[in-house]
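Give me structure tokens for this 548-residue protein.
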Amino acid sequence: MKNLAIVLLLAIVALSALPAAAAPQALGILLVDDDWDYQYTHPGSLGGRPYYASALEALGLAYEVWDVQTQGQPTGAAMEGRDAVLWFTGYAYEDLNDDPGVFTPQNEVKVAAYLDAGGRFLLSSSEYFYDANTITPFMQNYLGVQEISDVWVYTTLLGTPGSPIGDGIGPLALSRPDDYGEYWPPPPFEGPYDDEVYPQPGTGTPFHYNTDPFPPNSTNHAAGAFHTVYLGWPFEWVDTVNQRAQVLGAILAWMGCAWPLPGAPLLSPIENADGDGAYSIDWSDATGATRYTLEEDDDPAFGSPAVRYLGPESQFALSGQPAGIFYYRARASSPFGDGPWSNTQTAGVVPGASVLAAISNPDANGSYLVDWSDVAGAATYTLQEDDTPDFLSPAVRYAGAASQFQVVGQSTGTWYYRVQAANAAGAGPWSNTEAAVVFLTLHLYRLTPSWSASSPPGTYKVTTTASVHNQDHGVVSGITVSGKWKLPDGSVLQKSAVTNPKGMAPFSLTSSLVGVYRFCVTGMQRLGYTYNPAANETNVCRSFTVGP
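Here you go.
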């Protein structure tokens, strides 16, 4: 014992030398390693100890190990004043290597004295009842056990709904060691069997097996000042360290142990350079945490946050996120409460592509509407125009919040358009491309006939003047107008004329014929223009009488 005291003193000195922020809270937990039969069959192995150690360390709790194989049975002095005693037996039992049995009557006496002083005790053993071969007074009075059946090998367990310990936990896989079959025939033929543990009235059942008929397998019992939990299965077979920490933390919390709440995680900057709706959020592990809460809001003050993740992991991947700016924070929790919120990080998602509608411009004039679909999360739109479909030298025709733009006074040619939605996170992809074709159209405004006597006597100068306008009712010069005369004798004469600066093209001839003359405009032509007869404001033909 003198050597042990020296070792403990050195351990305490070593712990006190650690920085205050890094040192786990010392709860005075004694971990009793009583699975020495397993160690006998596995030389050099620590048996179940690493599984408890990893769970305690994940919770940020200091502990001291009592190794029954090397130190003998725990003394009352070793347990006295402990905040909690955690005792595990693995699947050792009395028939191997003259083992006197696990959790013996002498152990019961020592633990009972510790509990009578207000202690907290966890026992994990599937061989305790097998070795005792009866329901002992300690099982009844201190563990709240009414009946135990050592009958089967189970593979999963589940927290009991409504239990202050097990509610919301599981299902959890019970994973045997890799070499389990070398020492025990495969189930269901041989043990070690997991115990079915039936509680007395007033005693809780924190867990049960997740196999029909779902029998209970544990008790949680409080009487006077003490608290006990009995697990009829090896705790070390719970599959992952996070799950073991969750179970052990819930047990210690129910017992009334106290340890510091987890610190604030550090939320890493969120990488989403392409601004799409898929990105990951990562944060640092917090000592003692068994669960993390990730909140999201579009308000940096988190006025109406949504929980995006709740669980033991320290990262979360999102996909299908809508456009907008989103703020995130994380908080670590333990069975005793919630720690502070982390720092805040931001992720932006740009709007998707708008759909540009086909441009309607049936008369091919310079006035038409460019229209596009609204995009969720978009604040503004940019409309580009170019005379090439590759947009090598685009011009911005519109920038603003509206989702349409009226083009007026467009010059002739083929014009290509595309639109891009944007918000505070940036600009989204370009839309599809649509084109509009513009021709300056011509039409006949007026035909004015006239005639006068000419020389030599008996001849007449006959004229019809065509007035030409464009689609905006402006005069256009340089238009070649084609026409056709029909003379009183029925002969036909083709003519052409060019409009002057006043948009007039006179068609004249000299004739001695008296009677009805008829003139018709048959066409108009100039590069960049097209003749639109449907827009004519007068008949294309005009008849009139010449002569005395």
